[in-house]
Amino acid sequence: TFDIFCIAVSSLSETISLRLSREMIRKLRELAEREGKDRSALIREILERGIKERNLEYAVDLYRRGQVTGWKAAQLAGVSLWSFYRILAEKGILIQYSEQDLDGDLKA
User: Both ends of the chain: CA-CA distance in Å?
Assistant: First the structure.
């Protein structure tokens, strides 16, 4: 069974309703208590981290397939170029950078 859990945020934001299992709500409650945060703040933090992670995965995938330059991928991921290259190295992905890439980056 599922319970409905509403996230209420500031007046400049939007309220979102979603269905979470009782188990998920229990885990959120325990985590919030352990970290001394309210559930809404914790959920916003988790969502922010998840969005950043998904954007990074998307950028790495585009870069790996040769659809964007390192510079563009770093912008999509919201990190510096050097941070993006470090992430690629950690993932064992070789950096591919041609003269054509350099020309494109200089024009951007």
Answer: 51
68, HSE (Cβ side, Cα atoms, 13 Å): 17
CA dihedral for 1, 17, 37, 45, sign (positive or negative): positive
Residue reference for tokens 């190295």: 89
What are the structure tokens assigned to 92, written together? 């064992």
Q: 14: pLDDT confidence band, cut at 50, 70 and 90?
A: confident
Give the tens place of pLDDT for each residue, 64-74: 999 998 999 99
Which of 38, 48, 104 is closest to 71 using CA atoms? 104
Where do the domains of the chain lie?
2-107
pTM: 0.72
